[in-house]
């Protein structure tokens, strides 16, 4: 579904991503793990069209997308939940969800609101509340619901558990698995390597902008290198 080949990204003279190649098959959860500064967020931003690669290709469903504008990438079926959630303050929960559907012209929008409320019942209770007044966990649910309103075939999740209480973290990961079971492919970036790999079909380990290890989620959980570097083992 998604193929990254020899991707390099620079910020001025600084190279953040170095010749990265990986792929995401339809229906999978694929996790990218690595320390802060490893290049994980840069990769997601580049897939979304927010950063431009200095080298390499990004192919989605057989077509190159690395030169497309972000709105065209969303229209093709890729939606991102950014690190830090970035809900729209001053807009209600409902208005934030409406922003997620702004490119859609089909007749299923109302049905998809209902699907979001089923996954995140708290959002239905808070529809007319300013998004900035929600708790961190509720804002994460809103950011995910907003992304789902674009009806993505590929969902990019950037650090969904960051700053959340443990009870919210488990709930978010349960919902990620539910989203996958309902047919959406997921590319997940997550500092909580144990949680990320435990739900992943496959994973890649990034260090200083390069892929240094890959395998199934279970293989990486059992890897001595991964245990030592990311799992405290």
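-> sequence recovered:
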């Amino acid at each position: 579904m998604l193929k990254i080949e020899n991707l390099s990204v620079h910020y001025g003279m600084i190279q953040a991503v170095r010749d990265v190649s990986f792929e995401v098959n339809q229906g999978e959860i694929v996790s990218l793990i690595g320390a802060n500064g490893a290049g994980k967020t840069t990769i997601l931003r580049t897939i979304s069209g927010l950063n431009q690669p200095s080298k390499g290709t990004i192919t989605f469903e057989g077509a190159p997308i690395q030169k497309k504008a972000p709105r065209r990438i969303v229209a093709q079926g890729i939606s991102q939940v950014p690190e830090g959630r970035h809900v729209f303050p001053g807009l209600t929960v409902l208005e934030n969800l409406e922003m997620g559907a702004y490119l859609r012209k089909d007749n299923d929008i109302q049905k998809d609101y209902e699907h979001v409320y089923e996954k995140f019942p708290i959002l239905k209770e808070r529809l007319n509340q300013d998004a900035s007044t929600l708790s961190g966990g509720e804002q994460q649910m809103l950011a995910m619901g907003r992304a789902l309103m674009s009806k993505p075939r590929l969902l990019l999740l950037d650090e969904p558990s960051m700053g959340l209480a443990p009870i919210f973290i488990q709930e978010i990961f349960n919902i990620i698995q539910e989203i996958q079971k309902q047919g959406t492919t997921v590319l997940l970036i997550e500092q909580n390597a144990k949680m990320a790999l435990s739900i992943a079909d496959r994973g890649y380990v990034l260090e200083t902008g390069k892929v240094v290890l890959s395998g199934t989620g279970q293989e990486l959980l059992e890897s001595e290198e991964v245990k030592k570097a990311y799992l405290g083992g």
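The longest strand covers residues 14-24.
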